[in-house]
Write a structure and sequence with these properties.
mainly alpha, 92 residues, single chain
Length: 92
């Protein structure tokens, strides 16, 4: 989970944190509650997640539990990638 969190944190810091704003946020902090990401930002974040981790975020999966914190994103990405990794190793 930690590599996923590091990659997403770096993306957020590079793309959403305004200079002078607090860049300190915990893995469990809500992006919405801490004003880290707005609706347009979430669309950009989803695009990053899809490209970076090779997954497709379905419309029904675009919920706060999956995308509103580093912990949520890491757990979601691992869940989405598990079937892909099983398929890749299934022929052995």
């Amino acid at each position: 989970m930690e590599p996923i969190k590091r990659q997403v944190r770096a993306y957020i810091l590079d793309n959403f944190i305004v200079v002078g704003a607090s860049a300190d946020f915990r893995d469990s902090d809500s992006f919405i509650e801490h004003h880290i990401c707005d609706s347009t930002g979430f669309l950009e974040l989803i695009g990053f997640i899809e490209e970076e981790f090779g997954i497709k975020v379905e419309d029904e999966e675009m919920v706060p539990e999956n995308l509103d914190s580093l912990n949520g994103i890491a757990a979601y990405v691992l869940t989405k990638r598990a079937p892909l990794e099983q398929d890749a190793g299934g022929g052995r």
